[in-house]
Amino acid sequence: MDYKNELLSADRRAEDLLGRMTIDEKIGQLIQPFGWKCYEKNEDGSITITETFKEHLAQGGVGSLYGLLRADPWTEVTLETGLTPEEGAKALNEIQRYAIENSRLGIPILFGEECSHGHMSIGSTVFPTPISIGSTWNPSLYRRMCQAVAIETRSQGAAATYSPVLDVVRDPRWGRTEECYGEDPYLVAEFGVAAIEGLQGDRLDGEDSLLATPKHFAAYGSSEGGRNAKAVHMGPRELHEVDLLPFRKAVEAGARSIMTAYNEIDGVPCTTSSYLLQDILRDAWGFDGFVITDCGALGMLVNGHNTAQDGEDAVAQAIKAGIDMEMSGDMFRNHLRSALASGQITEDELGNAVARVLKLKFELGLFDRPYGDPARAAEVIGSEEHRGLARELAQEGIVLLKNEQGTLPLSKAIRKIAVIGPNANTAYNQLGDYTSPQPQGSIATVLDGIRCALGDDGERVLYAPGSRIRDDSTEGFSKALACASEADAIVVAVGGSSARDFGEGSIDLLTGASVVTDHAWSDMECGEGIDRASLNLLGAQLPLVQELRKLGKPLIVVYINGRPIVEPWIIEHADAILEAWYPGQEGGHAIADVLFGDINPSGRLTISIPKMVGQLPVYYYHRRTRGKRYLETDFHAEYPFGFGLSYTTFKYDQLRIEPAFIGPDGKASVTVDVTNTGDRSGSEVVQLYISDLASTVTRPEKVLKGFRKIHLAPGETQTVSFEVSREQLEFVGPDLSRIVEDGEFNVLVGPNSADYLTARLTVRTERKSQ
């Protein structure tokens, strides 16, 4: 049988296997049940496979399982009921072996897991969330993180992940802002490519390779009002120029799986958009992998979008548009056969989807090496090396927003320091959404980090939470103020929480998204399904900071959160502000490293922070035809895209372009001298923007087209170079093709999107003399 011959191509093996399959076996390959429902854990750590799973297998097979090792309130898998790294690998192997040995053709299961900022299984390393990762401006460091995630996940036998998230954030009130790298399509694309390279490695069948699934295709971060899965109102030019750019770059980098978005664009759900899935993805970009829906998306076609009359209509629309697999739903299982029998889809259309899934299984080596390695899983998952990497990422993702009169760094000789606030010692509040349960002591909080940095014996570091995230109670103020009054400086950790709620009614049982609750125990104010109408601190947090300010002590505010915070009072009155985002399991140590100057902060914002919510949208690449200012304020951000301070200072000088005149397909070299003019070593993010001064369609005032992160010793100067060519100058023209027009371009180089040097580049088409 050719499909069992490892020497043949994946295409040939898939073709042979497809020809041997029954209709039910084909349908089975497009189905993905919830993995955690396929087993029950025994007291000795072994598992018992459920009868439901065995029945599904007997009915035609199971192509994929979602989240077999996922643990969180949705799955109801806890530290007690979940599996250790070694047990997880053994359980996956047992389920895989049963599937292979108890199906007619022995087709292995593709195990898909959530790995947005670490594998969402018990014991795996919890890295900073993507908004923090973007703030590092360091794709090469992120590539190393993705390699670590692939090592941990593949060691247990899982071969696919539903990341990276390539959504471009337009409105940070959206709860999933934390899952994104930022507001700029070029930056998102750079990190997306790093993720593909890090996760998939040199070849998909490698022992440390993981099939990446960029999501959500497309424009999911541009929803109406920042509301999750709401309608998107966008013209085709903007769609191509902004939201599709990161996905195109991901496909060019080798992405072999794509997940569609829940939203509609101009009335057409992404799940059934043949324009997106066929015309663009496959025909224009040459994508030949498979497409998977988001969880529950097919059901939304009947009840939500209401673009399908019933289940048969929904699955037929999806298959015809180019969907190949349904994530964790029952629509394909319940309706594909009847849709085939009624003629709404053809056997060839069904076969095309199955062939794409099978081909990827062969490319991943699942038919030849389908099992994980329990011993290796125990060794690599949560290793010290990976913890160190998590700390390095958190360090580089912290953004210093304010530092009046050199308040930071603090001296380690400080007599006493007060650590106050609801996020000072609440482990889950610094991890973000899509995080597994954590054993006691595995997370370093801000309090832990400061105590460790000072070698505190309990006398120098004073702690009180003061308040909760969402609770208006001021009951804890008195203890917090008493602690702070004894200290020489106050570090107050406030912000948000994406720690999922435990309790009835707090989880959407279909999709796993959290739902808004008003329970007193709920502090969640961010994450999937938690969108907001404002960006201010909730509960009694601002009053707590205001009371601490009255003590007259140096006041350092540390934000731990998943979206920007807009609090003008804090900007005016705090002595220093650190934006730490959700910094992961080593975040407390990283924050302490920055507070005490062991690390010079080098994080830069990847999302503009407005002065007030009414300014939204405030992303930096607005078009020149932006209208007039508001009566109450202008349209400029409080902190612009790319902004971030350092404990040293940098000077930009001698911006040069050679040559200053090029053709549309020519290249120019842009160089600038950057000097560390302070007395500390530090890293600077040198940013290149292009401004097209006149074009046939309206263009953004400026767009990011390059960046370099460099490290300079005091007094050191480095010449930083960028290449400007067609890729940096092109835009999407009236006919949706990418073009470069003759004209004048300003080349802007500086530390952020609002502060830069400017030089002029001229593009002229060479015309032959008559």
Automatic annotation (TrEMBL):
Gene Ontology biological process terms from the UniProt entry: glucan catabolic process
Residues covered by the Fibronectin type III-like domain: 684-753
Record GO terms (molecular function): beta-glucosidase activity
InterPro entries membership: Cellulose_Degrad_GH3 (IPR051915), Fn3-like (IPR026891), GH (IPR017853), Glyco_hydro_3_C (IPR002772), Glyco_hydro_3_C_sf (IPR036881), Glyco_hydro_3_N (IPR001764), Glyco_hydro_3_N_sf (IPR036962), Ig-like_fold (IPR013783)
UniProt keyword Transmembrane present: no
Keywords recorded for this protein, A-Z: Hydrolase
Protein name: Beta-glucosidase
Organism: Paenibacillus apis
Organismal lineage: Bacteria, Bacillati, Bacillota, Bacilli, Bacillales
